[in-house]
Amino acid sequence: MTLFIIERNFAEQLEFTSEGAAELTEINDEVGVKWLISFLTADKRKTYCLYEADNMEAIREAARRGHVPADEIIEVTEHRPEWLLAAR
């Protein structure tokens, strides 16, 4: 699976709920994507979400079905400081 960062812009403030998370997780499972973590900006109008998916289209499909924006989808590669230090 490939890692993607999704930037989502919301017109109104966003509140995370367990019900909303459960619904999105069910949709993601059906489409074949995995939501790993999200960051909510201080004004609660933008999120940055890390996902695993086979491709961007699967993420777009999950967003469409979940009625959430996916304004930017960027493929990324993970790098951790401990990995770089261990390679010394």
- What's the level 1 CATH class? Alpha Beta
The percent range for strand residues is 25-35%
> What is the annotated CATH architecture?
2-Layer Sandwich
- Number of helices, counting only DSSP H or I runs of 4 residues or more: 3
> Helical content, roughly?
25-40%
Biggest sheet: strand arrangement: 2-3-1-4
In round numbers, the mean pLDDT is: 93
Could you give the count of β-strands?
A: 4
Cα shape: globular
Distance between the termini: 28 Å
User: Under CATH, the topology is which?
Assistant: Alpha-Beta Plaits
How is the main sheet built?
A: 4 strands, antiparallel
Task: Kindly give the count of domains.
Answer: 1
In CATH terms, the superfamily is: ORF SCO4226, nickel-binding ferredoxin-like monomer
Description of the structure:
This protein is an alpha+beta fold. The chain has a single domain (2-86), classed as Alpha-Beta Plaits. The chain has three helices and four strands. The protein has helices spanning 18-31, 56-66, 81-86, and strands at residues 2-9, 34-40, 46-53, 72-76. A four-stranded antiparallel β-sheet has the order 2-3-1-4. Strand 2 (34-40) and strand 3 form a beta hairpin. Helix 1 crosses helix 2. The protein is globular, with a radius of gyration of 14 Å. It starts with a strand and ends with a helix.
